[in-house]
Amino acid sequence: MSRPTKTDDGFADYYEVLQLSANADGETIDRVYRMLAKRYHPDNHLTGNADRFRLIAEAHRVLSNPEERAAFDARYEENRGAVMKILDDTSKADSFAGDQRIFDAILSLLYISRRRDARKGGLGILQLERLLGFPSEHLEFHTWYLRQKGWIERLENGQLSITAEGVDRVIERNVLSVSQDRLLSAENQTHHNHFDSDQDHSSNGSGSNNGQTDGY
Fold first, then answer.
1. pTM of structure
2. Which residues have CB under 8 Å from 146's CB, separation 6+?
3. Which of residues 11 and 178 earns the better pLDDT score?
4. What class is the 14-77 domain?
5. Domain extents for the chain?
6. pLDDT score recorded for residue 200
């Protein structure tokens, strides 16, 4: 069995690449692949992108093969678990303390992405949903707030990314739950993609606090 191609980040989230749920069936995978392949094929002079097309093709190859998809799913869950360690399991989305933990988590994840790729480091909204365990509609307030504060921004490709002000905020408040070296090491086992969402339900930013009420 051939191994899936790795990105420079060590792991490519093929569900994020195809903008699919991890529960997507084979028919859906094929249908979305055909749509994206047509859009990003190098022969398409308007929207063609050779790098993106290659990753889309690789994602389809792996996810459409039951054996390779099973192996990928195992690693996907492992990497998701590594990122989830950043979060406090007791976080509640309906409390002030919970909001602050979500701010922390978003900024921490985006800090990691930007730290590892200063030019294109960002996360898609679907990826944030999966990593944080909240649907996008529950993150709209948090991403709106963080964008209004100037701590996150939306890249040209539609992903969310931390700003210089956001990095300063992370350092100032010391919001990362573990040391930066440990987080970077953990992120080597996790994923982020460099591609836009193509979905309408994108949110407006991200940011963080160390769970202190006066931090925001």
1. 0.44
2. 103, 106, 107, 152, 166, 204, 205, 206, 207, 208
3. 11
4. mainly alpha
5. 14-77, 81-215
6. 41
